[in-house]
Write a structure and sequence with these properties.
single chain, mainly alpha
Length: about 260
């Protein structure tokens, strides 16, 4: 158990001591407080509390009655029969038995052709969904109506223009190559030489690829990493050269 410590007994403890009352400093009040309170009261919105402060209390005699808020129809007015039956326009009277029909009226309509005319044939349609959606056969794309156009099967103008530009560019290039060949600055590579160079490039690429396949999977040293990067760069260069020789059949080499 913890020991309880009591103050030491002394005779002087029996002497009553005077209580010293500490005075708290006066609470701080802003000098703008009255103006702020007044401004708040002035700018306070009406009907912001639980209701208007001054409202007329309804009288207990004017309580809500049944059907009092239902819309009331205007009272029905009784009008005399003469006023109700008046009308601005009257229908024509029924002809009598003794009246003769009007004669001498002619029309350009041919009733014989109208009666003997063949009924209009329905336009052909096609059903394109399992729910029975119908569409005109002409607009469905199943009827080859575009082959009846005047310019069907002809080469468009933009393609003719493009082909002419390509032919013109090729002629200018051939003229330039011929001039350079005549001057001795360029040499034309024959097909045999191009195939031989292509075969050597492919064999070199196979050798580098075989060496690349034999590298270790873990490149933990700088030398292994540098060797791998060097092989990748060389293989990429050979691939570009092979693609160049396979793409272009005519190759010119500079004598310089």
């Amino acid at each position: 158990m913890s020991e309880v410590l009591y103050p030491q007994e002394s005779v002087y403890n029996l002497i009553p001591k005077e209580r010293v009352q500490t005075q708290k400093p006066q609470r701080y009040m802003s000098k703008f407080r009255p103006s702020v309170v007044l401004e708040k009261k002035l700018t306070k919105e009406a009907m912001k509390t639980m209701g208007p402060p001054k409202v007329e209390v309804p009288s207990p005699e004017k309580y809500l009655k049944k059907h009092s808020k239902e819309p009331k129809l205007p009272e029905k007015k009784q009008c005399p029969k003469e006023v109700c039956k008046t009308c601005s326009m009257k229908k024509p009277a029924v002809p009598a038995r003794t009246d003769n029909p009007p004669m001498g009226i002619y029309t350009k309509r041919d009733f014989i052709k109208t009666s003997t005319a063949m009924p209009m044939k329905p336009q052909p349609t096609c059903v394109d969904t399992n729910k029975g959606h119908k569409e005109r056969l002409e607009n469905s794309g199943l009827v080859p109506k575009y082959i009846k156009k005047r310019d069907y099967g002809e080469v468009p103008d933009y393609l003719l223009q493009r082909n002419a530009e390509e032919q013109r560019a090729k002629e200018e290039y051939d003229r330039f190559v011929k001039e350079q060949t005549d001057q001795g600055a360029m040499k034309h590579l024959s097909d045999e030489e191009r195939h031989a160079i292509l075969e050597r490039l492919k064999s070199n690429w196979d050798k580098l690829h075989h060496e690349y396949q034999g590298l270790s999977l873990v490149t933990d040293t700088l030398s292994k990493k540098a060797h791998k990067e060097r092989l990748e760069v060389a293989m990429k260069q050979l691939e570009n050269d092979i693609n160049l020789f396979e793409r272009f059949k005519t190759v010119y080499l500079s004598n310089n």
